[in-house]
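Summary for the lay section of the report: proteins are chains of building blocks that fold into shapes. Here we show the chain for YnfA family protein and then a coded description of the shape we predicted for it.
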Amino acid sequence: MKTFLLYVATALAEIVGCYLPYLWLKQGRTAWLLLPAAASLALFAWLLTLHDTAAGRVYAAYGGVYIGVALLWLWVVDQIRPTAWDLAGVAVALAGMGIIMFQPDR
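The coded shape description reads as follows.
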């Protein structure tokens, strides 16, 4: 569970770090948003170093959690309800994450 929560925190840091420049570029918000965006992306990079397995495996498994958090962001922030297809895709991605992270003899 600790690993999964760390992946969720990592995904949130990445999404916030990318969303704030999006607000500046696409919605004309203040360029000051780039400062917390940079801090969030630095946090994202640091959080990736806290995972206790090989970097390539971390990135591969992280992708599954990122997809789930991104769709949660779609629902909560963008206020667009995910479709059944979205949820099926998340289920497949999280299954892949589980296979990668919890393989025997690791």
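Put simply, here is one thing we learned. The chain has one domain: 2-101.
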